[in-house]
Amino acid sequence: MNKELIINSSGEGVEIALLEDKKLVELHYERGQDEFAVGDLYLGKVKKLMPGLNAAFVDVGYEKDAFLHYTDLSPYFRSLLKFTKQSLEGNTPWGKDFGKFQNETEILKTGKITEVVNHRPEVLVQILKEPISAKGPRLSCEISLPGRFVVVTPFNDVVAISRKIHSADERKRLQRIVESIKPKNFGVIVRTAAEGKNTAELHADILELAEMWQTIQTNLKGAKAPQIILSEQDKTTSILRDLLNESFQRIVVNDKKLLGETKDYISRIAPEKEEIVTYHSAGQPVFDTYGVTKQVKSSFGKTVNLSSGSYLIIEHTEALHVIDVNSGTRSADAGQEQNALATNLEAAHEIARQMRLRDLGGIIIIDFIDMKLPENKKRVLEAMEELMANDRARHTVLPISKFGLMQITRQRLRPELNISTAEVCPTCKGTGKIGPSILIADDIEKDLQYLINQGHRKLALHVHPIMEAYLTKGGFFKSIQWKWYWKFKIKVQIVVDNNSPLTQYQFYDRKTDDLIKL
Questions:
Q1: Pairing of β 248-253 and β 277-279
Q2: Residues 43/223, Cβ–Cβ less than 8 Å
Q3: Strands 303-305, 311-316: parallel, antiparallel or unpaired by DSSP?
């Protein structure tokens, strides 16, 4: 699979498109003023305890207090409180060696929020979910610092290996390496990307994250809640960190500063890949050159058309998303059951892509075309599971029910990406009404009279093809164009403009080719 990352930098921010085999699968927007992104670390202050919910509301500077549930406190919550308090005061006897930090006792998994947060402390928290709809951010006190090959978790000494690494020998090898090199008081989760990597590469990644923890400790000194302590890397580098592998063929950037930052980051994490970064300097916008704009226009909206003539209808509510599969104009020569299977398999490909592209989260209900044979339902289920294997969001796919419905739950960390692909009609300006077409020729004639009175003699009239046919209907000597020639004693050249709205017309000076503004 060929992967390409197309990065478009503009005055409003950065747009990042991930293409797999030339097909758009992820679209990210990074605005300069983006705050409360997943992974950001804040110094928050507990404002209110909610014993009924077993949760607390924490002020992190957002307009609504953020939500912190007991299950997200982390077993090492008391250690985190101690670390936060001492770092704020600058009282850090362990200095730069976090291994000397004395951990507190762990909290109970089944405990109560009022037992561990019995006053309103300031505490280091991490954004677990971005603000969505009317809800504030959701927080976690299980601090995790993601690197390219590992994720570091302070206050414990646990080593865990990604389940996606299936080889037992490789799992043992990675476990042995990480246990021998990791600093004390840091847990390490080995990511899938670490498969086959050597000790030096893993050690460098762990040391970089340990330094990041030291930066957090420094930033906490003298801080006042609410305050951001450390921001997650920008989306460009976080995507590169999570996705960059041998299948990446090209990274295209249209901004020289961003080009330098991207090359610098890749030179640190994967020097052998540095040459795939290229600069886009052509006059055409980078998203147009690589077909991203066209795919965005065709992929968002209520209806998504498939190449066979089938189509999807995507509706969403506050609680869930509903996707309806329709066979449309697809040929049914193979029989109803086979046609339903073929349509559903094609739809599964597009649905898996749409979920990543729009970042759909929560509960997703898919109404596939009814199939009678259990083996066909199983094939669709297996296809959907395989197609979603590359999805970075945690998800669960349930078998097709007796009603023909498939239920999927997908991790929702950010607001759904919703792009309006409709454009305001340039003719009616969104009102839905235009002037009476029978009077357009009269309007043109009035403007023509005005221009002739102003001394214009060499005129070209640019109009829509249908308007051109109307003005020249019947040949020159029977047309409206002839009528104007007879009345004004000048010949108006009529030019077809395929991009012109139906009822719009423009006059140009034939000598200079300049547009004449009326």
A1: parallel
A2: yes
A3: antiparallel
- How far apart CA 156 and CA 238 sit, in angstroms, is 25
The whole-angstrom separation of Cα 495 and Cα 508 is 10
Sequence letter at residue 373: L
The SS3 call for residue 139 is strand
Residue 133: both structure tokens together = 């709809």
In the numeric block, the tokens 């305890």 are attached to 49
DSSP E strands in 196-337: the ranges are 227-230, 248-253, 277-279, 303-305, 311-316, 320-326
Number of H helices, E strands in the chain: 13, 25
CA neighbor of 228 nearest in space, from 329, 331, 125:
125
Report helix, strand or coil for 305: strand
pLDDT-derived band at 402 (thresholds 50, 70, 90) equals confident
Contacts (Cβ under 8 Å, ≥6 apart) of 433: none
Amino acid at the residue 513: D
Torsion from C-alpha of 140, 144, 145, 146, nearest 10 degrees = -110
Give 23: exposed, middle or buried? Use CB within 10 Å, 0-12, 13-18, 19+: middle
Token representation of residue 176 = 């042995």
| Under 8 Å between Cβ of 190 and 173 | no
Rounded Cα gap, residues 68 and 57, in angstroms: 6
- The residue assigned the tokens 């998303």 is 321
DSSP 62: S
| Whole-angstrom Cα Rg for the chain | 31
Torsion of CA 35, 38, 41, 47, to 10 degrees: 80
Q: What is the pTM of this model?
A: 0.67
CB 366 within 8 A of CB 304: no
Q: How many CB atoms lie within 10 A of CB 416?
A: 14
Burial class (CB in 10 A: 0-12, 13-18, 19+), 499: exposed
- Residue-wise pLDDT for 285-337, tens only, equals 888 888 888 888 888 888 888 888 889 999 988 778 999 999 877 666 668 88
What is the greatest pairwise CA distance in the chain? 100
What does each C-alpha distance from 82 to 26, 74, 76, 105, 304 come to in angstroms?
40, 14, 10, 11, 53
Torsion of CA 22, 28, 29, 30, to 10 degrees: -120
Q: How do residues 3-21 score in pLDDT, each as one tens digit?
A: 888 988 877 778 888 898 8
**CA 179 to CA 187: how far, in whole Å?**
10
Whether the CB-CB separation of 341 and 332 falls below 8 Å is answered with no
As a dihedral over the C-alpha atoms of residue 319, residue 312, residue 421, residue 33, rounded to 10 degrees, the angle is 40
* Cα dihedral 402, 302, 131, 41 sign: positive
Q: How far is Cα 211 from Cα 194, in angstroms, rounded to an integer?
A: 20
Retrieve residue 106's tokens.
């762990």
Tokens 């840091």 found at? 186
